[in-house]
Amino acid sequence: MNGSNGEERVVHELAMVVPKKIRQEEGNCVEVLVTELKKRGMVIDRVVGLADEFLKVAAPLETLGNAAAELHIRKPTRLGIDLPFEMQGSEAFIRQPDGLLFSWFERFRCYQYLVYGIVNCSGYDVILKLDGREFCWAAGESLVRRLESEGAIKQIFPLHDEFKRKELLQNWALNWWNFTNQPIDQIYSYFGAKIGVYFSFLGMYTQWLMFPALLGFIVQMVDFGSLQFLVLPSFFVSTILWAALFLQFWKRKNAALLARWQINCLVGPSQGYRFLGMEWSSLLFPKELIKNLGNEKSKDKKAYQRYEWFAYRKRFRNDVLIILSIICLQLPFELAYAHIYEIITSDIVKFILTAIYLLIIQYLTRLGGKVSVKLINREINESVEYRANSLIYKVFGLYFMQTYIGIFYHVLLHRNFITLRQVLIQRLIISQVFWTLMDGSLPYLKYSYRKYKARTKKKKEGGSSPGKFQIASRVEKEYFKPTYSASIGVELEDGLFDDSLELALQFGMIMMFACAFPLAFALAAVSNVMEIRTNALKLLVTLRRPLPRAAATIGAWLNILQFLVVTSICTNSALLVCLYDQEGKWKIEPGLAAILIMEHVLLLLKFGLSRLVPEEPAWVRANRVKNVTQAQDMYCKQLLRSISGEFASMTKPEQEQDSEQF
């Protein structure tokens, strides 16, 4: 039950795909499902499609509130303290930016609890029927899971809210005049924190790109004559400082966003952020260790240390396997492509070769991604987000090799800067065209093919022309749309994996070879402005509504961007050395020595800025301290009341005994 301006309206946010009713029969599983859903307090709307029937599910606020209370969902209150939700005290909890009591992630979690929580409480087995076939619903068994295993429920997926979807289309996807300005709060409310944080990062990144884009345009187009050798080092220093400051100020903005959305989390050393309230049951330690925790401290310590280092060894082993595979298998292929590209003279043939190479490497990378997923499944990680980050690191290693090794080949071996600039232009243009076609056309082609397949099947069954079978219902159109899933590791990541990977590869391309092609920053800025709108249209029009994820930052991608900044210091220093040392003798002359000193100074500045610029704004820290202080005061008062009550109950019988004696 969503609301606008204080008015509640029924919004069906979940859909179930079930078979069409062929005959009336007692004990039909679909009818039993609808009855049980209504008993749980949900509103059901049944829609008949071409080949299937759709159950649109909505939950009133009271139903969601009761589910949230049973799940013990912790929500921020007006006192600044996170407390388990209770429907009776709902007015004490802070509402979302869109005015709703629950976020999309919390609502979807409640829907899952309500739907999958339907169990057989009768104490005996129930016989259900589906098109003449009978099966048993055992006592204590989940009805939905049973129907899924029997094929009675084909799919369960979230539905778009048409009112909010059209509002976002108008204010965001189709509003080209705003360029990088986006309704981030609306995006967060509709899609969840992970997608909201990603688009906030993309918008800020594009805004910050305007400075190096303008500077790079001037450096590329203006002939400075004899001062050119001073202009490029100055541009190099400016881009490194720009990147270091951008990443630090992004951390500040990320912290401000989380504070504005009332998402409480802690800064961690390796993963960036970890949500408060993580219980022992969420950590992947053996149950025996947790059960015996505290019995014998010395043995517990040794057991946890052994288990910790065992997990590290498994992850280290898998990382070594991936690195060796990249060196032994992918590196020769990349060098062969770079060598063939160097000896070819025709620009058209080079362009075609690059396109063919990108298609082949996509298949090889997906193969490497499948291997990475299998290795990750054998690792010991604390949570799903840790596993997803492990996948990101491994797959990015594959893409790093395929994207940059050929460029390094042109720089270090041949020192051919003309060819290097051609390769950079082709990579930036081809990559942008490739990703745009993949984002826009592939989901639409899948959607069109599924509609055609459904109409053809209906034509064979009914014997009529396919023109008579039109898909009129919105829910059936949503059913035919593809999901927002990753190209690699679908079980661990969603579609943001591909979008973030594209962004990281672009960042590495423009940063690591800034001195060779300063104009790349301007191309990246134009590309990102288009990327914001195309991604928005993809999410709102051509794909289903994504499943909400609880990630509060861009996760492992931030560490990858930090790595690329450090790498760009080394690569651009090497480019400047190649420009100064035209004879190829690699002598430490005054100019080369200055480059070496500048490299070390930039590395120090990079790590120094991370300490000088605070990762959180002062008002965020002040609010957190205020909330902690209020929580301590409240808990202290509550503890004093409980102690006073217990002391009074203990002393009262003694006083009564004394009075009886007198």
Written overview of the protein:
It is a single chain. The chain has helices spanning 29-39, 61-71, 104-116, 143-150, 162-173, 184-191, 193-221, 228-260, 287-291, 297-343, 347-377, 384-414, 417-462, 474-480, 496-512, 520-542, 556-580, 590-612, 618-661, and strands at residues 2-4, 7-9, 14-19, 43-48, 52-58, 74-76, 82-84, 126-130, 133-137, 155-158, 265-268, 272-275. The chain has 662 residues and is α+β, with helices and mostly antiparallel strands. The strands form 5 sheets. Strands 4-5-3-10 form a 4-stranded antiparallel β-sheet, sandwiched between helices. Strands 1-2 form a two-stranded antiparallel ribbon. The protein has a two-stranded antiparallel sheet with strand order 6-7. A hairpin with a 2-residue loop joins strand 8 and strand 9 (133-137). Helix 2 (61-71) crosses helix 3. The protein is globular, with a radius of gyration of 30 Å. Mean pLDDT is 79; it is low at 266-285 and 287-291.
